[in-house]
Amino acid sequence: SIKIMIAILTETQTLARQIALGLNMDVKTENEGYFHGRGFTLVWTGGELLSLWPPENRLAKSDLPFIPEAFTLSVRKKQVKKGMTEDKSAARQLNAVKNVFDSCDSIIAATDASENGELTFRRIYAYLRCEKPFKRLWINSLTAASIREGFKTLREGFLFDSLYAAADCRAKADYLVNLNASRAFSLATGLANCPQGWLQTPVLAMLCKRFYC
After folding, report:
1. pLDDT in tens, 30-69
2. What percent of the chain has pLDDT over 70?
3. Dist. CA 76–CA 35, nearest whole Å
4. CA 66 → CA 69, 91, 202, distances in Å?
5. In sequence order, which ranges of the chain are alpha helices (DSSP H)?
6. How far is CA 82 from the centre of its chain?
7. Residue 189 has what DSSP assignment?
8. Closest by CA position to 113, among listed 15, 5, 7, 14
9. Comparison of pLDDT for 95 and 3, the residue scoring more
């Protein structure tokens, strides 16, 4: 087991390594999914570990529009021949994050300084039902000097509640658009896969307008 005081969550192992070096930590121990030293343990997500849970059954025309009673998070899934299954690498890294969070006294959110970065941290924090205090590392440069300065000026986590709310709202809206529009297009065209989304669809429309209109 690991005995730590402060956990630091990043989105990538590369970023965790840079922060660890900026804090003069040893980065040799990485086989367990974290770096540990100087009173910190750095752990990373390695991508989106969680996603909103899709409907269990394939949506029929009469089911549209589909709006769930509650938005539920689940461990990231991947496509296999028989359908969707839980991504074992995501489950393994989420377990590493859980072990670190369970062992710490407090947390530093060091995910990207953006809506997506805030959403990534808050989803994991909520999914693990963590109630430990956390602060936010908000930096736009990964130099050792910037990292050390960022740790001197950590911000209270609640100051980013509005950023999280905006990111959460956008993610749920994207989920609804993707789920309903994709299924509607599939039913209308007879094609098995017609993915739609808040970014993909307008970009595709722009391309079509440029080349075919």
Report:
1. 557 788 888 999 999 999 999 998 887 788 889 899 999 9
2. 95
3. 23
4. 10, 28, 21
5. 13-22, 88-103, 115-127, 144-152, 161-189, 200-212
6. 26
7. H
8. 15
9. 95
Quickly tell me which residue has 């965790």 as its tokens.
16
- In angstroms, the Cα distances linking 22 to 16, 26, 45 are 10, 10, 20
**How far, CA to CA in Å, does 90 sit from each of 47, 172, 176?**
8, 21, 24
Question: Which of 67-81, 102-116, 129-143 shows the lowest mean pLDDT across its residues?
Answer: 67-81
HSE-up (13 A, CA, CB side) for residue 21? 10
Tell me how far apart the alpha carbons of residues 187 and 185 are, in angstroms, rounded to a whole number: 5
Distance from C-alpha of 114 to C-alpha of 185, rounded to nearest angstrom = 32
Query: 50, 70, 69: which is closest to 127 by C-alpha?
Result: 50
Sign of CA dihedral 101, 106, 112, 117: positive
Q: With contact defined as beta carbons under 8 Å apart, do 50 and 124 qualify?
A: yes
Q: How far apart are CA 100 and CA 124, in angstroms?
A: 12
Residue 13 corresponds to which tokens in the numbers above?
């192992």
How far is Cα 47 from Cα 33, in angstroms, rounded to an integer? 13
